[in-house]
Write a structure and sequence with these properties.
elongated; alpha+beta; 6 strands; 6-stranded antiparallel barrel; 2 domains
Length: 175
């Protein structure tokens, strides 16, 4: 049983070794050339530059996600929790871990709106999301682009607040 895992382990270890050796080669070449400089001040400057270059390379390898990127990611996945869940338990567990957000409401700009044959509105947001009305009859929508607020509702649902109507309307995310 272990025999089938040994080649993949060796391959991963080789990749880790090679990725670390690329940084080590540039660092090593900079460090080797510095001691050959006879003047103390110039030699010190050489070592300082090598250390600075090494720090830049390490920062490039270990970039962390900024708060702005995290908030954009949360906004893009808002309301997406129920769209497509996998029947495979392992994949579904990974999806559930990835969709945990702390957002309770978000504001979007609507770029296009239309009505379905059942007189329920469909809103196309600026970021590509599509939301559809779940219940109720035809509700008048403003012309052109307008802003809406989508809030989390009870039992995993979502509610929308339109500028023309101050009550909440149940919606679901289509895309």
């Amino acid at each position: 049983m272990l025999k089938k895992y040994i080649p993949s382990f060796v391959f991963c270890a080789g990749l880790l070794f090679l990725s670390g050796s690329a940084v080590a080669d540039t660092q090593r070449s900079a460090m080797i050339s510095c001691p050959k400089i006879p003047e103390a001040e110039a030699r010190l400057k050489c070592f300082d530059l090598a250390a600075e270059k090494y720090a830049r390379e390490m920062n490039g390898m270990q970039r962390k996600e900024t708060k702005a990127n995290a908030s954009q990611k949360k906004a893009a996945t808002f309301g997406q929790g129920y769209l497509k869940t996998s029947p495979d338990p392992k994949v579904r567990k990974a999806q559930e871990r990835g969709t945990e957000t702390e957002l309770n409401k978000i504001e979007y700009t609507v770029i296009k709106s239309q009505y379905s044959p059942h007189k329920k509105f469909i809103l196309y947001m600026q970021n590509g999301q599509v939301w559809q009305q779940k219940d109720g009859g035809r509700i008048p929508l403003p012309k052109g682009n307008f802003k809406v607020i989508i809030k989390k509702g009870a039992l995993g649902g979502y509610n929308i607040i339109l500028p023309t109507r101050r009550s909440v309307i149940k919606v679901k995310r289509v895309r």
